[in-house]
Amino acid sequence: MDGRGRALRLLTLLSSRPWWTSAELTDRLEVTARTLRRDVTRLRDLGYPINATTGPSARYELGAGGRMPPLVLDDDEAVTIALALRAAASSAPPSLADAALSALTKLDQVLPVVLRERVAALQAVTVSGPASGGPEIEPDVLTALALGCRRAERVRFTYRSGEGAVSDRHVEPYRLVPLQRRWYLVAFDRDRAEWRTFRVDRITDVRSTGAAFVAIDPPDAFAMVTEGVAVRAYAEQATVRIHHPPAEVAQRVPPDVGVQVDADESSTVVVIGGDMPWIARYLVGLDCPFEVVAPDALRSALRSLARQLLRDHAAVRARPPD
């Protein structure tokens, strides 16, 4: 085995457990103690922090903060893999979760300090699980916002609204919330003097100001985002009492469709945004008892839908058999 291959093998061994004695490594690699020391020096020159003790019981261990191997993973790839492994370790089936945790442990041992901070920042300020399959987001934008949240530092960025208007924003970033296939930033907008949500895929050119802040009366970030997506984004809203307890309603009505506003042991009040015919069809599809609290327009839409369903049913029954 050549020197580079042997060094890679040494790195793999050091990553597989907390420490090795010099005798164990020379036996595994089939080299002399002098060659082992030379390979350790080569890895140190590449940026891997390998700690060693001297004497008859000399041992080696891989410290935290080494660089990722050149041409293997760039910074964004390393952060993405670390986040995916953390998500899998917490939510995958036991067999996969154990493997994810093992791989994450090895990766953490060689992540440089800067990348470990990026991963930790995203983990610390993310409210729920990761989103998937949504609009493309620049990793630098996401991590810059995460660092702003974690460090409590004001940031500026360029924002494009849903109507296409572009503006410069000066905010105090608080939390990142992934919902369905999109990421949202919850922040206090200093120019507008109120808490706002921003879609991260519409954010560009994030600049840290270096100015620290203390969040005053921060909102429930997840509730703020879900209310914005499910209710405030629409000109029309309906309030409905569904005759099931909150836990069951949460399984039937996801947070991006309806927001729970009141509940007792047997029923839950939900606010849903959208046009009344769509809300009527959605409620009928739930296949559970409900009553309309407001508005009357939803009651009219439900009656219209009922008449349409009865007509369709009658037309099918009147159709001659094949």
Commentary on this structure:
The chain is of the alpha+beta class and 322 residues long. It folds into three domains: 3-62, Winged helix-like DNA-binding domain superfamily/Winged helix DNA-binding domain (Arc Repressor Mutant, subunit A); 126-219, SH3 type barrels (Roll); 234-314, Malonyl-CoA ACP transacylase, ACP-binding (Alpha-Beta Plaits). Helices cover 46% and strands 24% of the residues. It has eleven helices and twelve strands. The chain has helices at residues 3-16, 22-29, 33-45, 75-91, 94-110, 113-125, 139-151, 221-232, 246-252, 276-285, 296-318, and strands at 20-21, 50-52, 59-62, 153-160, 166-179, 182-189, 194-199, 203-212, 237-242, 258-263, 268-273, 290-294. A five-stranded antiparallel β-sheet has the order 7-6-5-4-8. Strands 10-11-9-12 form a four-stranded antiparallel β-sheet. Strand 10 (258-263) and strand 11 (268-273) form a beta hairpin. Helix 4 runs antiparallel to helix 5 (94-110) and helix 10 packs across helix 11 (296-318).
